[in-house]
Design a protein that fits this description.
Elements (H helix, E strand, L loop, with lengths): L3 E2 L2 H9 L11 E2 L9 E2 L8 E2 L2 E8 L4 E8 L1 E3 L2 E3 L2 E7 L6 E2 L19 E8 L4 E9 L2 E9 L6 E2 L18 E10 L2 E9 L4 E8 L6 E2 L18 E10 L2 E9 L6 E8 L6 E2 L18 E10 L2 E9 L6 E8 L4 H8 L6 E2 L10 E8 L3 E9 L4 E10 L2 E8 L6 E9 L2 E9 L2
Antiparallel strand pairs: 1-8, 2-25, 3-4, 4-7, 5-6, 6-9, 7-8, 9-10, 11-12, 12-13, 13-14, 15-16, 16-17, 17-18, 19-20, 20-21, 21-22, 23-24, 24-25, 26-27, 27-30, 28-29, 28-31, 31-32
């Protein structure tokens, strides 16, 4: 397929736009990085250079072999081709051998949801077959498709693709539903994915019992950008997830409006939908000027074995090429518990929404010190109920929710939180 495409760095910048260190979260970048640099093609195209980006790695403990599926576009004399999915093998996670029959999955035919490229994939094995959930691009939109394989090399796309689609106009994931991370646990499929509405990238959650029919969580997004001026005030989209014991660990992409670089932050959750961000974020930073990963970090995969976290991530040094690096972090058993305890609030609090004034979205943060039923509603200046944002049980913790006022008129609004006997109100201003 020789259709032309823009550089991956442009695509990534569109979505991601694009500190203190805590000893428990020290990531050591491999001295051989990038472990999978941009690579040359086979004997049929030896002069063509290929990206190595958005990696997904599975480790087979029985054989000791690592398998990587990664997105790659080629740069030849006619420019960039559309992104396809390629594969590599490694005995140790650092020395990679690129499969000589790449790509293993290519974009669809014209008019298909993935006709303009495959940007990333999350591969799992459900005990019977391999399943790949991948981002398929069509013009400026991205949805999530499914392909299956008996061996990880030969893939067949699901005829009913896409299996997860972007939301309606005005929603938090109205432009992109992309970059999925999937865990298969106890016969249930869990997916976290990045959503983009033209302003912010955020993280949503979906669940499936068959791997095909997905139900989005009603409280999406489950991870939102940080406060204005923070390192992640424009984006907080999932990069990699792993489950250790009863806790889920998420590395997520964070970017801000002051610079183009993208960092990785850490969050944990015990229930998959309520996430606590680590107080020492970001935990993985771009490299120094001149290094291969100096500009921004992007897609990643996170594994845990041999009592270590293992991370493969793609990055750019500022050029048009994306390459994949490797890093490890020692596991401290008290890490998850410490993160949860550090962030448990001592009192109820409804924070001032931001931005304020808003147009058309605002993030509303709130704290609850104990398990309680919480409702958060929006009222207009006449006291009429405009929206119900939360109406559910919450455990002790810090939370946030997004109000999309796309269909509301300019004016004064009131955000009201009821939590047990606690009542609190904050004033909001919508200016269109």
């Amino acid at each position: 397929m020789n259709r032309l495409i823009m550089s991956c760095s442009i695509i990534a910048a569109t979505f991601f736009l694009c500190c203190p260190s805590y000893s428990q979260i020290d990531w050591v970048k491999n001295s051989s990085n990038p472990v999978l640099p941009f690579w040359r093609g086979n004997e049929n195209d030896p002069l063509v250079l290929h990206h190595a980006m958005e990696p997904c790695v599975l480790y087979d403990a029985a054989s000791g072999i690592h398998r990587m599926w990664f997105s790659s576009s080629a740069l030849g004399c006619y420019g960039y081709t559309y992104n396809s999915m390629s594969m590599g093998l490694s005995p140790d996670g650092t020395t990679w051998f690129v499969y000589d029959k790449n790509p293993v999955l290519q974009p669809g035919d014209p008019t298909a949801f993935d006709e303009d490229g495959i940007l990333s994939g999350s591969v799992i094995h459900n005990g019977t077959e391999y399943l790949m959930y991948y981002s398929g691009q069509n013009a400026s939109h991205i949805d999530i498709g499914l392909a299956t394989s008996p061996d990880g090399f030969t893939w067949m796309k699901y005829s009913g693709n896409p299996v997860v689609t972007r939301g309606p106009v005005g929603s938090w994931d109205s432009l992109f539903a992309a970059f999925p991370q999937v865990i298969y646990d106890g016969g249930v499929y869990y997916m976290w994915y990045g959503g983009y509405n033209g302003r912010h990238s955020q993280t949503g959650f979906a669940i499936s019992t068959d791997g095909i029919n997905w139900t989005k969580y009603g409280g999406n997004p489950v991870l939102v950008p940080g406060d204005p001026g923070s390192w992640e005030d424009l984006g907080a989209s999932v990069a990699g997830i792993v489950k250790k014991d009863t806790l889920y660990y998420m590395l997520y992409r964070g970017n801000n409006q002051h610079e183009g670089r993208v960092y990785l932050g850490l969050a944990t959750s015990s229930d998959r939908v309520h996430w606590v961000k680590y107080g020492g974020n970001p935990v993985v930073n771009p490299g120094s000027p001149g290094q291969w990963d100096a500009y921004q970090l992007s897609g990643a995969t996170l594994l845990f074995h041999n009592n270590k976290f293992h991370l493969w991530y793609c990055a750019s040094g500022g050029s048009s090429f994306w390459e994949t690096g490797y890093a490890t972090s020692d596991f401290v058993s008290s890490l998850g518990r410490t993160m949860q305890q550090e962030e448990i609030p001592t009192e109820y609090k409804l924070y001032q929404s931001y931005p304020n004034p808003l147009n058309p979205e605002a993030v509303i943060k709130y704290d609850v010190p104990m398990a309680v039923h919480v409702t958060i509603k929006i009222y207009d200046a006449l006291g009429q109920e405009t929206a119900i944002l939360v109406d559910d049980q919450r455990s002790a913790g810090q939370y946030s929710v997004v109000w999309n006022a796309q269909n509301a008129s300019s004016g004064v609004y009131w955000c009201q939180m009821n939590a047990g006997d606690h009542l609190e109100v904050q004033k909001m201003m919508l200016v269109k």
